[in-house]
From TrEMBL:
InterPro entries: GHMP_kinase_C_dom (IPR013750), GHMP_kinase_C_sf (IPR036554), GHMP_kinase_N_dom (IPR006204), GHMP_knse_ATP-bd_CS (IPR006203), Homoserine_kinase (IPR000870), Ribosomal_Su5_D2-typ_SF (IPR020568), Ribsml_uS5_D2-typ_fold_subgr (IPR014721)
Catalytic activity: L-homoserine + ATP = O-phospho-L-homoserine + ADP + H(+)
Species this chain originates from: Ureibacillus sinduriensis BLB-1 = JCM 15800
The protein's name: Homoserine kinase
Localisation: Cytoplasm
Domain spans labelled GHMP kinase N-terminal: 60-141
């Protein structure tokens, strides 16, 4: 078995408006792990987006990898891990899902679990609690997914999204658990029918790659954005300004607080320049969909 690997996982955005807990899109912002077998556990963070003070036993990568191995009655061997991340924590860019996908892949490699793609989709989505971000990070591209009561994931995978995406990242954090607290416990029937119809139209538009309609239905959410928008810095102003600058549509990225716009690729540089002038307190990044998903590179050829 090879003793050293690189694991690269794309971050992701979820929901894209009304696709609540089911639609995910991978982005070319990455979490990278360099993993080698070792005598003792060591996790080294070499990124500004990762905390420097932590206990290994409480680290998400360690916990998920150990539990994944235990599911298959294997013992996770000690590893030395160097982590680099372009994904700010608690900003709605799939940092936790990327870490979970990386941890499942870590266990798969060092314990020789021989997991299938379906296994990875199921396990990572079960740990995450919903399949949107996790499936996008595993497969790349856009995913529309459902997870049943047994934790089995069914996914439609859409590739070659011919548009660009701009993320507006504020300085504040917003944990998904906190963002869920503001959501109503139930909707009345007529409201739910409208919300569901908008989600259906978003999914159909994404599959048909009708970008004008994608933008329209990204901005039609009734499930969560009406209740979360007050938690998001400059949300209404970003939505309005992005539309004026040529965006197809704008929505929360996951639970927020990051906001994401889908735009024609041809206007990318100009759009970002305009937005940076209008929203100087946000980090504004031009991105595209990642189409590879989680990837593994063998860094040496030492075998035992």
């Amino acid at each position: 078995m090879s003793k050293k690997w690189s694991i690269t996982v794309p971050g992701s955005t979820a929901n894209l408006g009304p696709g609540f807990d089911s639609i995910g899109l991978s982005l070319n912002l990455y979490l990278e792990l360099t993993v080698s077998l070792a005598k003792n556990w060591e996790i080294i963070h070499v990124s500004d987006h990762l905390p420097q003070d932590f206990v290994i036993e409480d680290h998400l990568i360690y916990k998920i990898a150990k539990e994944t191995a235990a599911r298959f009655k294997k013992t996770l061997p000690p590893c030395r891990i160097e982590m680099r991340s372009q994904l700010p924590y608690a900003r709605g860019l799939g940092s936790s899902a990327a870490a979970i996908v990386a941890a499942v892949e870590l266990a798969n490699l060092v314990c020789d679990l021989q997991l299938s793609i379906q296994d990875k989709l199921n396990i990572s989505s079960q740990f995450e609690g919903h399949p949107d971000n996790a499936t996008a990070s595993v497969l790349g591209g856009l995913t529309i997914s459902q997870m049943d009561e047994q934790g089995i994931v069914d996914t439609i995978h859409v590739k070659d999204i011919e548009a660009s995406f701009v993320v507006f990242i504020p300085t504040v954090e917003l944990k998904t658990s906190e963002a869920r607290k503001v959501l109503p416990a139930q909707f009345d029937r007529n409201y739910a029918v409208r919300a569901s119809a908008n989600a259906n139209m978003l999914a159909a538009s994404l599959i048909s790659k009708d970008y004008e309609r994608i933008g329209k239905y990204m901005e039609s959410d009734l499930f969560h954005e009406p209740f979360r928008s007050s938690l998001i810095p400059n949300f209404d102003e970003i939505l309005r300004t992005a539309k004026q600058a040529g965006a197809y549509g704008t929505a929360l990225s996951g639970a927020g607080p990051t906001v994401i716009s889908i735009i024609p690729s041809a206007i990318g540089a100009q759009f970002v320049s305009t937005m940076k002038k209008r929203f100087p307190t946000h980090e504004i990044l031009l991105t595209k969909a990642d189409h590879q998903g989680v990837s593994i590179q063998v860094l040496n050829d030492v075998f035992t």
